[in-house]
Amino acid sequence: TISASTLDLTASPSSPITLLINEQSLTRFSNSPATFPLIQTSGGITGFSASKFIVNSSGFTSGGGVWNVQLSTDGKTLELVYSGATHDSNDNGLHDTWEIAEFGNAATGANPANGDADLDGFSNLIEYALDTRPTSFSSSPLTVDRVTLSGSTFLRMSVPKNPNATQLNYLVEFSSDLSPASWSAAGAVIEGNTASLLVVRDGVSGQPSRFVRLRVVAP
Length: 219
Description:
This protein is mainly beta. It is 7% helix and 36% strand. It starts with a strand and ends with a strand.
């Protein structure tokens, strides 16, 4: 772990920072979700984006999980996050550990991604992405508000994320008229994206109506 007063990350997606994970770099490794501090600051880290990092774990064969780089919630620590070894034996987009804990099984054909066992309007895949209970009716954990910048008002959505659902893609999309072809994430501004929270602001203002939705895509 490196300590500093402040840090400004000037790398770019076209010239990223590469982190090399090997058997010697992590001692007493446990194949379960974990967070490792890389750089700790007292004054904060600026310029962070996950796209500025590449994690090369080809030399690390002890785990079967996924590695990512994130910024701590207080903005002062750069962290290396390991999802833990997880599997999706029935190919429904839900990791077996979560699926068995929530449904009691991960059998072939069981608990389809588009199913809604509790009839609360959230599919099993969305419940997994948000880490809510798929068998217990609940209100939406999504937060939608408006933020004013330079005199213009923008729609914004905050999405709580399942830290272990690292294989999913979270897409916050906006529309002016709800037509299928109008939904798009183009121009949206990602205000924050950590292992547990995604905050996205609309890039368009000044229109009579704007709508926002969350779309989750499994590989």
